Amino acid sequence: MAVQSSRPRVPVPRNTLLYSIVIPAYNESENVGTVIEHFATLLRSEQIPFELVIVNDNSTDDTAAVVEAMKADYPEIRLVHNGPPGGLGRAIRCGLQHYTGEAVAIIMADLSDSPDDAVLCYRKLEEGYDCAFGSRFMQGSKVMHYPLLKLLIQRAVNNLIRVMFMTRHNDMTNAFKAYRRHVIDAIMPLHAAHFNITIEMSLSALIRRFRIAQFPISWSGRMWGSSKLKLRAMGRRYLATLLKIWFERLLILDDLLQDSEANESEEANSAEPPINKAGTEE
Questions:
Q1: Is-contact 109 25, C-beta < 8 A?
Q2: 212-216/142-144 β-pairing
Q3: The pLDDT value given to residue 280
Q4: pTM of the model
């Protein structure tokens, strides 16, 4: 079975982590404004400090203009532009170069992810988990408007991953996940250019034995616009990423674990309050 860290979880005081929401957006002018409004409204009501890092991924519609127009009402917005070539993976990598928070979540711009679940991710990280993985396929999950063929393929791929990596986690292909900063630092650099970044991030965290909370989520297929996921084109990319991380786990896991522990220790030390000359915390 996949092993998680034996180190105890250290809870974080409520609403003290800056929460970065990275939202890659390609031709999402019909959806992105609603996503911003829904997430910002709930995060404000929960008094969670946050930023919305919107990544315009070479859009040819009014996505960037819609986001710019909302900055006056939502100063938490940070609009960045991913230069060509585009692709979900490249857009997420761009967002991860610009976020400033101690925690980061990846949210789709197509209204598929729930703001309530984003808050739950944050609360799990506050409990001391390194990662929070939402699952569409466990008891309590709600999945709507998911094409049957894609659903069957997703279940098959995730079952294969469970066998290959001997893990209980059953939705590694879903992008909706949250990570502490030291996890992102540990799994860098990322290389996936398209939807295969979903398993590159989740599996890279898994094999490094970070403490992962999994919980059921509500997920809905897109209602406006067209899906960017093309199953046939993605097959070879998923396979390449899957095999790469499987061999990392098999051959160089000791090196990866040492680097991960160093990153976590560095983050913990940087979070400690400074000590003045009298020996008391400032």
A1: yes
A2: unpaired
A3: 41
A4: 0.89
Strand arrangement of the beta sheet that strand 50-56 belongs to: 77-81, 50-56, 19-25, 103-106, 177-180, 131-135, 212-216
pLDDT of 271:
64
Which amino acid does the sequence have at 2? A
Residues in the chain: 282
Contacts of the segment 4-9: beta carbons below 8 A, 24+ positions apart? 4/209, 4/210, 4/211, 4/212, 5/130, 5/209, 5/210, 5/211, 7/211, 8/128, 9/127, 9/128, 9/129, 9/211
Residue 4 within a domain: no
Instruction: Count structural domains, the chain.
Output: 1
The range of the structural domain enclosing residue 204 comes to 19-221+229-271
Chain centroid, CA 54 distance in Å: 14
Q: What is the CATH classification number for the domain harbouring 45?
A: 3.90.550.10
Residues (pLDDT < 70) of the chain are: 1-7, 222-232, 271-282
209 found inside a domain: yes
Q: Rounded to the nearest 5°, which phi and psi values hold at 78?
A: -125, 110
pLDDT in tens, 181-212: 999 999 999 999 999 999 999 999 999 999 99
